[in-house]
Amino acid sequence: MMERSQEWFEKMDKRRSIREFTDESFPIEILENAIQTASTAPSGAHKQPWTFCAITDPDLKKRIRIAAEAEEKDSYERRMSKSWLKDLEPMGTDMYKPFLEIAPWIIVIFKKVYDIGEEQDTKRNYYVNESVGIAAGMLITAIHQAGLVTLTHTPSPMQFLHTILDRPENERPYLLLPVGYPASPCYVPNIKRKELKDIAVFY
Question: pTM value?
Answer without folding.
Answer: 0.95
